[in-house]
């Protein structure tokens, strides 16, 4: 808890000055709470943030509207959030922590699944429609904008007509399970690059890989 409080208030318990706010980032992984959803395709946002915690050696604590953890990398402070509001209400938690921490919109990154991309394909975008994704739709409503960074992780579309919900709420198949560790590692590399190098360089380096 001390680590999390230090992120919120700093050692002197005051907010960072404006120039330092540009060094604060919010990474929001989308998913549904509950063990029954843990290994589903729709929860890959949570899974990527869990992978990040393992690599950066931090843990999540239950806070208002979600589970949160922090780490620092080369002078930048990163707040990772897994909303507890369920996928379709992701915007409330995101907006609350953005405003509480005064994190600039350009330093927000939303991590989500995408059925329009082949399994494991990575794509970072700075704007766009919700693509029929209810989590992104809710975020768009709370931000009143489609201009925010989103990192889409492809889960494929191997489902028949009318079976989309069953597919995204279904568990990874055996082939996906074997490939997933390498893809998750690549995903966390993208997030680190976003924080350190910015969105344009990261898009050029990772999109489509």
Topology, element by element:
Layout: H1 2-9, H2 18-21, E1 24-29, H3 44-56, E2 61-63, E3 66-73, E4 76-83, H4 90-101, E5 108-114, E6 122-125, H5 134-143, E7 149-154, H6 164-168, H7 174-197, H8 199-206
Parallel strand pairs: 1-4, 1-5, 5-7
Antiparallel strand pairs: 2-3, 3-4, 6-7
Helix pairs in contact: 3-7, 4-5, 7-8
Question: Can you tell me about this structure?
Answer:
With 209 residues, the protein is an alpha/beta fold. It has one domain (2-206): Peptidyl-tRNA hydrolase (Rossmann fold), CATH 3.40.50. It has 8 helices and 7 strands. Strands 2-3-4-1-5-7-6 form a 7-stranded mixed β-sheet, sandwiched between helices. Strand 3 (66-73) and strand 4 (76-83) form a beta hairpin. Helix 4 packs across helix 5 (134-143) and helix 7 packs antiparallel against helix 8 (199-206).
Note the total helix count: 8
Which blocks of ≥5 consecutive residues have pLDDT under 50? none
In spatial order, strands of the major sheet run: 2-3-4-1-5-7-6
Shape designation: globular
Summing up helix and strand content along with how strands pair, one would put the structural category as alpha/beta
Give the assembly state of these chains. Answer: single chain
Question: What string gives the helices and strands in order?
Answer: HHEHEEEHEEHEHHH
Tell me, rounded to a whole number, the average pLDDT.
90
Q: How many angstroms separate the termini?
A: 36 Å
């Amino acid at each position: 808890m001390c680590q999390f409080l230090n992120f919120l208030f700093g050692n002197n318990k005051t907010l960072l000055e404006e120039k330092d706010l540009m060094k604060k980032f919010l990474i929001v992984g989308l998913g549904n709470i509950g063990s029954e959803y843990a290994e589903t395709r729709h929860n890959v946002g949570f899974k990527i943030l869990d992978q990040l915690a393992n690599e950066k050696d931090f843990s999540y604590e239950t806070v208002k509207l979600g589970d949160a953890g922090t780490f620092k990398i080369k002078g930048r402070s990163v707040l990772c959030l897994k909303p507890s509001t369920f996928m379709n209400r992701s915007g409330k938690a995101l907006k609350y922590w953005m405003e509480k921490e005064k994190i600039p919109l350009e330093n927000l990154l939303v991590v989500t699944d995408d059925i329009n991309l082949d399994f494991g394909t990575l794509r970072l975008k700075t704007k766009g429609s919700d693509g029929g994704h209810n989590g992104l739709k809710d975020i768009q409503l709370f931000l009143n904008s489609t201009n925010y960074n989103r990192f889409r992780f492809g889960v494929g579309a191997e489902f028949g007509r009318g079976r989309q919900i069953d597919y995204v709420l279904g568990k990874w198949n055996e082939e996906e399970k074997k490939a997933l560790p390498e893809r998750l590692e690549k995903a966390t590399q993208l997030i680190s690059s976003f924080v350190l190098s910015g969105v344009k360089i990261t898009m050029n380096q990772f999109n489509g890989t």
